[in-house]
Predict the structure.
Amino acid sequence: IRTAASHVWPFPLHVHNHCVWKPARHPAIISDSHLHTPMYFFLTNLSLVDICFTSSTIPKMLLNIQTKNKVITHEGCITQIYFYALFGVLDDFLLSAMAHDRYVAICHPLHYTVIMNPRLCGLLVLLSCTMSALHSLLQSLMILRLSFCTDLAIPHFFCELNQILLGACSDTFLNDTMMYSATVLLGGGPLAGILYSYTKTVSSIRGISSAQGKYKVFSSCASHLSVVSLFYFTILGVSLSSAVPSSSQLSATALVLYTVVTPMLNLFIYSLRNKDIKRALDNYTQVTEFLLLGLSKDLTLQPLIFRLFLSMYLITACGNLLIVLATISDSHLHTPMYFFLANLSLVDICFTSTTIPKMLLNIQTHSKAITYEGCITQMYFFLLFGVLDDFILSAMAYDRYVAICHPLHYTVIMNPRLCGLVVLLSWILSALYSLLQSLMVLRLSFCTDLEIPHFFCELNQMVHLACSDTFLNDVVTYFATGILAGCPLAGILYSYSKIVSSICRISSAQGKYKAFLTCVSHLTVVSLFYCTILGVYLNSATTHSSHSSATASVMYTVVTPMLNPFIYSLRNKDIKRALKRFIWVESMKGPFILRLRK
């Protein structure tokens, strides 16, 4: 990549191998409703910015050390400058906003909730982000106008703005003027606000009569004061070290304190000196297991339930597995319809396996416990295979639509590439949806009541157990359900409306019957799938009984996957023929091998 002076510009970064650690922020504030206040709102944003601020420099440094390569591209260097300046200035603005929050809380406590309302807090963060983005964009554009000489070595572990300007061979007067002016305005402005807030805060604290009252009020802003002092003292140290002639090594070392150590220490300062944060962290980590109450509390019914569900699970697994094996073994079934059917059978096995084995184990061991991690994992795979079932049924409806409405173009439209892409896209969308829902549950905190009135970790029951705010979870659930369930259902209805229209145009009754027969199995499975889901929804909406809802859930989690092999094998001559051939071949292998051995 060439600059205006036609010089190649990948910058070799002289990386200094300092011992660094990137802070991992815990989602304690999000999960605890008691921390949904202006102070902790700003703290959450500060923590997020600290992660991004450190991530703009350290990963590249670690990659360079690992690969023993000091080069950074022109675009990479400009991008790093942009984000480094963005999050650095944003850190400063947020600290100033937090100082104003402490000033209002201590000097105007009766008007605190009125002044520091959610709208003002949101506007302050938005304004901070906007000003930081404009500043970093301006600085990046100012560097783009420069040309660089042959010495392209940056004596630093990242693309630091001042070092880039020193490496330019064109006039940098305008850049220097802009940099110093922006530093005074965007650095001095927030600092002046912080100093003003704390002078007023100290004045109010001095007016409190009791020593205990003074200590209590001061402790509410001690953490923020420590972070502010650390932030500005490290900046001052960097400025002093860069002012010393020929001190690139010293300046790079000092910058480690500002870019890495300060964000790392913020976590400890706020958690160790703040009882609310420590309590939230304790509450967040205290949940280790849930209790699955199952279908019935009656101990005398447990053996019957165990035998019944074990039988249904074995029938489901064996029946669907036979369809998969028959489809693979018979070349006559290597068509789009049976490709989707094999995938549906495989998904049904997995769908049932996410819930029933754990339920059977709990009955057998007389234990209702499931670990927190196990519950999240079960919920993830249950949602994954449930949504995947829906997508594959929709793909099968489209396959029937093409076969009946466009029979001459069937092999061209439903080619192996399209079928593979449809299944792949279904897997990706299902995995992303289940991952999103699992992450949304992870942000919740749970109270002491950890009993799930179900035989598996059902999403709705998990959300109901949470003692933190679940509004966002409900919005995501309803929105995603509307899209991921409504769109496939709309596709199925559209396909069958076109199919019915095409069948009605067939003149002979025999032709109509033959065309309808090709999709009757799929139509039966679709009807069973959606009717059982609708039944569960209506049951939970009308009775409000968790036990009744759990019983109804058995229909679509166990009964529907169990019946699918019977529906497709009993009403499909191709499947019956393939199953007979497969069983006959397998039964003949044993005697044949024995005769060879004799």
